[in-house]
C-alpha cells in the first residue's frame, strides 16, 4: 500500500489525513510533519485507524513513497526539491511558489531526472480540466477574479504593504490587479489557484488576476474566463471557507483528496 507523508497539518493536511483514516483513500498514512507540534498532536488524536509517526522533514522524505505539501510557499522551496531528489512523488498545494521560474524549472527537471510525478490539484477553482484541454490549441487570454470577505485576506503582504484596513471596508473594493506572477506574491495564502491556472494555461505573466474584498460575502468566490481557439470558457465557484482557516476554501481540500483517489484508481475521468 502507498505510504503517504503529509507536511503541513493545518486545514488541508488535516482533511487529507482524515480522509485516509476513514478509508476514503486507499493508502497508508505513514508520517506527518508540521512546524507546530500542537497541530501534529491534535491531528493524531483525531485519527482512529492510523497513528502516523511524527517525523522531521528529512526523516519523512526517507520513509514514505508519496509526499504531500500542504504547508506554505516557503515550504515548497525547502522541501519539494529534496523530496524529488529522494525519488518521491509529490503533491503540491502551495502552488504559488512555482511563479519563481528558476524553482519551477528546477522542480520539473528533478521530476524528470528522478522519474517522479509532481501533482497540482485544481484547488479551490473549477475549470482546470477545460484549460488543460484548451491549451492543446491556442489560448489568447485567461483572467481570474477572486472575491473574498475582507477578513479572509488578513496578513497578505499586499494588504500590509499598503496599510489597507480590511475591517473598515464597507463595499466591494478592488485591492489588486496584475499578473498571476505578482498576485501569488501579493497574496500567497489566497490565490495559489492563480498559479495552477497559469501552469495549465498560458503562464504566470500572461494570466491576469483581480483580487476584490467584499464585505457582503460569506464565501470565497473565484471566477475564471478563458478565450482561445476553442471558443470561450467561464466558471464561477462560491466556496464555503474552512471554519479553521477562512483564507482556504473547503473545495481546495476536497480537490487534494480527489486527486489522490484519481492517482490510485485504474479509471481516469476528465482531462
Ligand atoms: N492550491 C490551492 O487551490 C490552495 C492552496 N492553498 C495553500 O495550501 C497550503 C495549506 O493550506 P491550509 O491547510 O489552509 O493552511 P493552514 O495554515 O491551515 O496549515 C498550514 C500548516 O503548515 C504549517 N507549516 C507552514 N510552513 C511549514 C514548514 N516549512 N514546515 C512544516 N510545516 C509548515 C503551518 O504551521 P504554522 O501555522 O506554524 O505556520 C500550518 O500548521 C497553504 O500554503 C495555502 O495557501 C490553500 C487553498 C487553496
Ligand atoms: O481556497 C481558496 O479559496 C483559494 C486560496 O486560498 C488559494 O488559492 O490560495
From TrEMBL:
Domain called Aspartate/homoserine dehydrogenase NAD-binding: residue spans: 8-121
Keywords in alphabetical order: NAD, NADP, Oxidoreductase, Pyridine nucleotide biosynthesis
UniProt keyword annotation of Transferase present: no
Top enzyme class: oxidoreductase
GO biological process: NAD+ biosynthetic process
Binding site for NAD(+): 124, 192
Residues at the active site: 222
Record pathway: Cofactor biosynthesis; NAD(+) biosynthesis; iminoaspartate from L-aspartate (dehydrogenase route): step 1/1
Catalytic activity: L-aspartate + NAD(+) + H2O = oxaloacetate + NH4(+) + NADH + H(+); L-aspartate + NADP(+) + H2O = oxaloacetate + NH4(+) + NADPH + H(+)
Highest taxon listed in the record's lineage: Archaea
Enzyme Commission number(s) of this protein: 1.4.1.21
One example GO MF annotation: NAD binding
Span of domain Aspartate dehydrogenase: 170-257
Cleavable signal peptide: none
Record-stated family: Belongs to the L-aspartate dehydrogenase family.
Other facts noted in the record for this chain: The iminoaspartate product is unstable in aqueous solution and can decompose to oxaloacetate and ammonia.
Functional description taken from the UniProt entry: Specifically catalyzes the NAD or NADP-dependent dehydrogenation of L-aspartate to iminoaspartate.
Name of the protein in its database record: L-aspartate dehydrogenase
Amino acid at each position: 500500500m502507498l505510504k503517504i507523508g503529509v507536511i503541513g497539518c493545518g486545514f488541508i493536511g488535516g482533511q487529507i489525513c482524515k480522509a485516509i483514516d476513514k478509508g476514503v483513500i486507499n493508502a497508508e498514512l505513514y508520517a506527518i510533519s508540521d512546524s507546530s507540534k500542537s497541530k501534529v498532536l491534535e491531528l493524531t488524536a483525531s485519527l482512529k485507524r492510523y497513528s502516523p509517526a511524527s517525523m522531521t522533514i528529512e526523516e519523512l522524505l526517507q520513509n514514505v513513497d508519496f509526499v504531500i505539501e500542504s504547508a506554505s510557499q516557503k515550504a515548497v522551496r525547502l522541501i519539494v526539491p529534496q523530496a524529488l531528489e529522494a525519488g518521491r512523488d509529490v503533491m503540491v498545494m502551495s502552488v504559488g511558489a512555482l511563479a519563481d521560474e528558476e524553482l519551477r524549472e528546477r522542480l520539473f527537471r528533478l521530476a524528470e531526472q528522478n522519474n517522479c510525478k509532481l501533482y497540482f490539484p485544481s484547488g479551490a477553482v473549477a475549470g482546470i480540466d477545460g484549460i488543460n484541454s484548451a491549451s492543446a490549441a491556442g489560448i489568447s487570454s485567461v483572467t481570474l477574479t477572486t472575491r473574498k470577505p475582507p477578513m479572509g485576506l488578513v496578513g497578505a503582504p499586499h494588504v500590509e504593504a499598503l496599510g489597507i484596513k480590511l475591517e473598515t471596508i464597507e463595499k466591494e473594493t478592488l485591492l489588486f490587479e496584475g499578473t498571476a506572477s505578482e498576485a501569488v506574491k501579493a497574496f500567497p495564502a489566497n490565490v495559489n489557484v492563480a498559479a495552477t491556472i497559469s501552469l495549465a494555461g498560458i503562464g504566470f505573466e500572461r494570466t491576469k488576476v483581480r483580487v476584490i474584498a467584499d464585505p457582503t460575502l460569506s464565501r470565497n468566490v473565484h471566477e475564471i474566463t478563458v478565450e482561445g481557439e476553442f471558443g470561450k470558457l467561464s466558471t464561477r465557484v462560491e466556496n464555503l471557507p474552512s471554519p479553521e482557516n477562512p483564507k482556504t476554501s473547503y473545495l481546495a481540500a476536497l480537490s487534494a483528496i480527489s486527486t489522490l483517489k484519481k492517482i490510485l484508481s485504474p479509471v481516469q475521468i476528465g482531462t
